[in-house]
Design a protein that fits this description.
about 200 residues; alpha+beta; globular; 5-stranded mixed sheet
Length: about 200
């Protein structure tokens, strides 16, 4: 059974407050085979098999910019345990390797597993992360409303600004490009889970 194991470690945790509870709360709604949970210290882990769920989890983590993210793709031993931290298999080992390498990598995210498709996924995530990093709080406000299904006109009314201002914020935030990036990361995650087929 091939899955995605996300092993996530707080960046700079020795000098800052514990952000794990807030991250776990933000990820609580993401569908997972094994729910995200703290493993040890400032680290947490989850097991997913749905590419859309992987994208949702990554976007939440990349948005905050406070995490070293290891993505392990591969097999796990079955039957699955009740908790993510009790699992075993190559995907877990890959996630551990990836989170260690993430600490000195672009955007603090790495992917590990077999095949060129995993490298392609990692490259797409780096490009997506660069796009998300340039978003301001105003850009995220518009992005969140559009993700909820609002049109630019409806978002303008809700925020209390002109439709033109919403369009400008959307362009500056790269909302259209961000949608395409999400689609690409989801596609490449699916490809990686299928072994490049």
């Amino acid at each position: 059974m091939d899955v995605v194991v996300l092993t996530v470690d707080q960046d700079g945790s020795r000098s800052g407050a514990d952000q794990v509870p807030a991250a776990l709360a933000a990820l609580a709604g993401v569908p997972a085979l094994l729910a995200f949970e703290r493993t040890v210290g400032d680290e947490f882990q989850g097991v997913l098999d749905d590419p859309a769920a992987v994208v949702a989890a990554l976007e939440a983590l990349l948005r905050s910019g406070e995490w070293n993210i290891g993505i392990g793709i591969g097999a796990v031993e079955t039957p699955l345990p009740d908790q993510a931290r009790a699992g075993r298999g190559p995907a877990y080992l890959s996630a551990r390797e990836a989170v260690t390498r993430a600490k000195s990598s672009p955007w603090h995210v790495r992917a590990a597993g077999d095949g060129d498709h995993v490298r392609a996924l990692e490259s797409a995530i780096w490009l997506w992360a660069a796009l998300l990093a340039r978003r301001t709080p105003r850009g995220w406000e518009v992005s969140d409303l559009v993700d909820e299904g609002l049109t630019y006109d409806e978002a303008a009314v809700k925020i209390g600004i002109s439709q033109s201002a919403v369009s400008q914020r959307a362009a500056a935030a790269g909302i259209a490009e961000g949608r395409r990036a999400r689609e690409l990361v989801e596609f490449l995650t699916r490809t990686a889970l299928e072994g490049g087929r």
